[in-house]
Structures are given as structure tokens and as C-alpha cells.
Amino acid sequence: MLKQDMYILEWPFLLCISIGFLLHSLVVGQIPLGSKVSVVDNNFWVSSNGDFALGFFNTSDQPNQYSVGIRFNSDSIPVSKREVVWVVGADVTVANKSYFQLNQYGELVLFDSFKGQNVWTSQTSKLSVVSADLRDDGNLILLNRKKDVVWQSFNTPSDTLLPGQTLSVPQILRAASRNSMSSYFSLYVNASGQLQLRWESHVTYWTSGSPISSNITASLTSSGALQVRDQRLKPVWSAFGEDHGDVVQYRFLRLDVDGNLRLFSWVEASQAWKSVWQAVENQCNVFATCGEGGICVLTAAGSSACICPFKVTTESSKCVVPYREDCKSISNMVRHDHTNLYGLYPKGYSVIQSSLHQCESLCLNDTSCTVATFANNGTAQCWLEKTQYITGYSDPSLSSVSFVKTCSDPLAVNPNLMVTSPAQSSPIQSYEFCIPCLIGVASGTLVVFILIQLGVVFCIYRRTSSRKKAALAYTHNSSGLIVLSFSEIKDLTENFKHQMGPEMFKGVLSNNRPVAIKCLKANIEGRKFRTVVSKLGSFHHKNLVKLEGYCCEVSHRFLVYEYAKNGSVEKYVEDSKLSKMLAWRKRADICLSVARAVCYLHTGCREFVSHGNLKCENVLLDENLEVKVTEFGLWRVNAEASGCGFSAERDVMEFGNMVLRLISGCRDVRDLCEWAYKEWMEGRAENVVDKAIDGGINLQELERALRIAFWCLQSNKRMRPSMGEVVKVLEGTLTVDPPPPPFSCQGPLEIEELLV
């Protein structure tokens, strides 16, 4: 059926959206010949239950690259989290005047306006197709006159399986092409009836159980299980999600861009997709999961990260071995313990039996060898790689040792260094010892040595004494926070002499360390105040201002923060001279750092914490111009910590306002938002950027920042992204669709914003 998109970007249509919806909802049932969806019309084919919709979407950072696919469409899922489950032609993208049509010949065609031709067809023109239908399970089908299904999207999966959809030979799932590496990952059914994950066509890094038989199918059940079934549809292998058997309305299985196969469930309470099972438990065991970005390591939190262990001298972001066969200088081998390295694009490697030393020597003496890895597990196996493109895994649990060949610069010769031969050397002369001279020198040396030792002991004593005095100067609570009296606060601030901002004063501790002291007008009871402050003092993130201590007396409430030397970002944006210090790179880093800090408050602490007052004034810069977010959670010590109106959605909206303020340098939030969106929509995004910025801007980063800012400012708070998603978008690891017009560009919050 046909249905206009409720979030279409044309302003006139927004005034008539309810009328348009009524008109199009009358077109119920199958999709007739001649039906078309296009980028310009921004219309959709929707399943009868409304759970799925087919239409155009943009998954790249380029505004003129669109794909056609099926995505979740339920009103219970926020727009920003409606995942795509099937894509026409996998990697095919088209221009902004393209269309997708069921033509009069019964064939689905994707027409690219830029190329002026069809770039994909269903090849069903000879199958007597009379209509199409997007079913309630997300399957797009074509029907002939007898109502038989002659073609279906379930038979040509992209990277996703839906409940009820099957995978069999020769079908495969292939990861989306979000980068140069991801499309090399695939899931397929082998001849022995096993599911296998592989890299390109030659590396298999996960297999589902033992060989079974041929003619099997794999499917995802609605109860949350991935099953392999034989010809009689009897399960012969199963993997269960952690919520298996629970009532979950939406599920899907996807081969992600990092090469791992995951089962996702929609959690209504948190309004988010949750991974409830993954094929490879340790992400670093996925072959080439880092691609050309280096080797995989596990962080303290248990997540994977990619690092480059080589000293890369090229400007490319690729992590390659710094050695070439034409190296004309000295070659060295750099040892990496607990590391397993292997070739990403093997052009020839060998495995031999050797000792650790022999393994290193063999690679060093072979001009074509770049890396040697010794198993070090008793097998005496040595792998010799012959490619610069190396990836792998490093972890203390690994016994393997790798050697990386480097090409060193030759040592310079000192032309002034004269080497004389024995024939030209002067005759050896004999000397007499002066006994009194030796005694005098020895005595003087001893006296000097004793004086130096006494001086060192004295310095250590003074330093230790001063530290003890400083430590004893203040008391600490059980959380390690300094507890100060009001008289001590007055002493630190010299009777509030140095005011830094509204109710904010500079102070100096007894160890000469500067601090910022915030005066609170809070009526919260003392015990509750100390409890809340202790929680705030337990938060530790490099982009959060550290809470050092507090004062809690009958009529006085103060917080003591670490001191940020360079003040607030607002000061830099407001001042025409200082604003020049914030180049584009720095402003982009500030946005990302603030997003990471707020994401930590939302998801990285033991309990959710809303910042409550996110703006440029509360983003500080330390002596190195690194971001420090301050005044987080202060709403907890005001109004008896009622929490009214403080939520993740409010923080996200305030972050969107802050991003526009920082990028543009403008102050009027309402006018800025509407003007910036209009400029972006009409292809003039660069006009939004502050004219004080020197050195140019990164257009891709600007596009990502504006898109995510407009999503953050959606009037419907359910449409706003999470801060975790914001971080990924700004990092460039998650794509973001073009946003509809925002309407939350105001100063005071609306009533619905306060009723959280």
C-alpha cells in the first residue's frame, strides 16, 4: 500500500500531514502495477500492520547518495532507531531524483537519475506479475494472476534475517559496505550443513557446531533462537538469545560491519535495540575486524579497540608495516609479546617448524618477509608473512610472539673522528704518583659527598612535612572528598575576592593548588546533600570536572571543583579575538568530548545521571584546552532533588543547541536553529560556520555534526538519539539519515518536556 512519510521535509506538507495520511491510508492491500516511490516525493510502501516500510534512505555522509530498502516503521520505535532490514541491490546508491517502481511489465526497477538508466531490476518481466505486497513480516513479494509468489525479498537477503526468513545454499548474508573492509564479511551455509562466517572466500573464523548433512536451512524464530534445520524441519543446531522465550515484539539477526553475527531484540522500556547473542564472543577473534586500522585489543571494560603498533610515517590512516623490499639501509626486527599478527591481503606466506630465534632470523634475512609470528605453544610453528597489510590480536592471554621488520636509517659518520693506527701512535709515557695530591682530592670529594647527602635528606624531610601538613589541614569523608567549614571556604577564597562567574569563586588550597568554588542556594537537608555530593564525587571521566570537596553547614552549601585555567567555551565563542583560537578541528573535538562525557553520565555510571544544564557556559577548557564539563547533576542538590524535567532527552536537546552555538558562534537559539536548518536544507551548510574560524573546515564532519544536532532538537523527544548514538555519529562510525525540521529550538522548555 502507499503512504506518505510523516516526516517529509517540505514545510507546506507538514501543515497538511493529517489530510495526506487519510487520503493515502485509503489505498489498502496489494501494490498495483505502475506504483512508484521516489526520493523527491519521499513516499513509502507500508505493510498492512504498519511495522515495515519500503522507501529511500540515506546511510552515507554524502547528501546525494540514496538507497532503497525495507526498514522497521512501527510508531513504538523512534525514527532514528528504525533499522534497515533489506536493501535493494546491496551496495547500489542513486541520486536525489531517482525512483523505485513496479512497472507495467511486472518488474521492480531502480532508476538512477544521475546515470539516466536502471541500475537494478527484479528480472520478473516474463512471470506475469500483476501486483506486489509488503507483508506484515517484512517480506516484499510479487504475485502473478494466480496469486502465486513468483519473487520475494526474503530470497535475496542483504545483511539481515527476520523471524520466519530462511537462509540456505547458495544464499549469503553480506555485511553492509560502510567502509572499505566491511563488505568482505559474509555468512553462508557450507556443503556440510554448517553456518560459517568468513572473510572474503578463503578465511573461515566461526562455524556452527559439527558437520550435519546437506540440504539444511537456517532461520530465526520469533522466540529468539537461531536454528539450523534438516529436510524434515527438525532443529539440528540452535543458538539462543539471552531473552529466549520472552515476549519481544521485534527481533532481527544481522551480520554487522565489524564481522560479528548478532541477534537483536527491541526493548520497549529502554527504547533501544539490545544485542542478546553474538556468534564470536571475543570480538578480537573475528578475522580482520580492525581491517587496515591496526590490531585488535580488549579494553578494561571488555570492549574491543583497534590500535596501530607500528610507527607509520605516511599521512594515510592505514596501519601498515614500515618496511619495503627496496630498503637500502639496516633492517631490524621489533618484538611484540602476546601478539598474533597475520596478513590482511596474503600474497604468499609460509609456515615452518623452528625455534623462536630461528623464526626471527628467517624473516630478517628474507627481503620479502615483513612479519614473523612464533606460536610459542609447543608446536614450534613459525608464520612468515610477505605483505605490508598486517592485522591481528594482542592480549596478555596469548602465548604467541610476533616480530615486525622495520627499515632503519643508517648512522651518520662523524668526519672529525680520527682513528690512528698502532704504527702512528705516540710512545707510552710513564708518570709518577703525587701522594699528597691524591689524599687532598679524596678528602675534598668525601666532604662534598656528605654535604650533598645532607642536602637531599633535608629536602626530602621538608617535602614530606609539607605534604603531611597539607593532608592534615583538611578532613576527608569516606569517598575521599575534602570536607570544609565555611570559615575555611572564606580563607581559600580570600573572603570571596576572586569571582569567576555567577556564584563561582577562585580559591587556593594549602598546597597551593587552585580550585573553583561554587556557592549553592540549596534547601536540601544536610544528610541528603552529603549523600548526593558523595555520589557526584564518585564520577571519574577525563572530560568531567573533578569534584574535590564540599562545605555543608547550617546555612551554607559549597562545592569545590578542580580548576580549569582557560575558562568556559562560551567566553571563547563570544569574544571575537578568542574565537579565532577555536579552529574547526578544536570545535569538532569539543563537541565529541562533551558527547562522550554526557554519554558516560547516562550509561557509564552505576545509575543514570542527567546533566541538567548543558550549555557552552558549563563546558570548560583546562590549561591544555582539553574539555571539562562542569555543573553536572546539580539539580540533585536543588529543590530537594525532585528531578522534575531532568532526563536524557533534555540533555540531548541541550547538546543539540550547544553544537549549533559552537559551530556558528551565534547566540539567539531559536533564530539560529531555524536559520541553520534552512541553510543546510538548501545546500549552504558552510554558511552556518562561524566566520572567525581560520584554516578551513572538514565538510564531512560538518555534515555529520549538523545532522545529529537537528536530530537532537526534534520536538518529539522519542525521535531524539541517545548520547551513545551521538558519540558514534561524531566519531564517524555510525551514519545518520537527513533529519526532518526540528522544533525544539527554544530557550524555556515546553510543558511536555518537563513532564518526564
Describe the overall structure:
The chain is of the alpha+beta class and 756 residues long. The strands form 10 sheets. A 7-stranded mixed β-sheet has the order 35-36-40-41-39-38-37, sandwiched between helices. Strands 1-4-5-6-7 form a 5-stranded antiparallel β-sheet. A hairpin with a 5-residue loop joins strand 38 (504-508) and strand 39. Helix 8 (584-604) packs antiparallel against helix 12 (723-731), helix 9 (648-664) crosses helix 10 (669-681) and helix 9 (648-664) packs antiparallel against helix 11. The radius of gyration is 33 Å and the shape is globular.
Mean pLDDT: 82
| Percent range for β-strand residues | 25-35%
Strand order of the largest sheet: 35-36-40-41-39-38-37
| Residue share in helix | 10-25%
Count of DSSP-assigned helices: 13
Tell me the span between the first and last alpha carbons: 36 Å
User: Any idea what the radius of gyration is?
Assistant: 33 Å
CATH class descriptor name of the largest domain: Mainly Alpha
Which class best fits the helix and strand makeup?
Answer: alpha+beta
CATH superfamily of the largest domain: Transferase(Phosphotransferase) domain 1
What are the segments in which pLDDT stays under 50 over at least 5 consecutive residues? 1-28, 410-433, 465-472, 746-756
CATH architecture of the largest domain: Orthogonal Bundle
Major beta-sheet overview: 7 strands, mixed
Tell me the layout of helices and strands.
Blueprint: E1 2-4, H1 11-15, H2 17-25, E2 31-32, E3 36-38, E4 43-46, E5 52-57, E6 67-72, E7 84-87, E8 99-102, E9 108-112, E10 117-121, E11 129-134, E12 140-144, E13 149-152, E14 160-161, E15 166-167, E16 172-174, E17 185-189, E18 195-199, E19 203-207, E20 217-220, E21 225-229, E22 235-240, E23 251-255, E24 261-267, E25 272-278, E26 295-298, E27 304-307, E28 330-337, E29 339-343, E30 350-353, H3 356-364, E31 371-374, E32 381-385, E33 390-394, E34 401-408, H4 435-473, E35 475-476, E36 482-484, H5 486-492, E37 499-501, E38 504-508, E39 514-519, H6 526-537, E40 547-553, E41 556-562, H7 569-574, H8 584-604, E42 619-621, E43 627-629, H9 648-664, H10 669-681, H11 699-712, H12 723-731, H13 751-754
Parallel strand pairs: 26-33, 36-40
Antiparallel strand pairs: 1-4, 2-11, 3-8, 4-5, 5-6, 6-7, 8-9, 9-10, 11-12, 12-13, 14-23, 15-20, 16-17, 17-18, 18-19, 20-21, 21-22, 23-24, 24-25, 26-27, 28-34, 29-33, 30-32, 31-32, 31-34, 35-36, 37-38, 38-39, 39-41, 40-41, 42-43
Helix pairs in contact: 8-9, 8-12, 9-10, 9-11
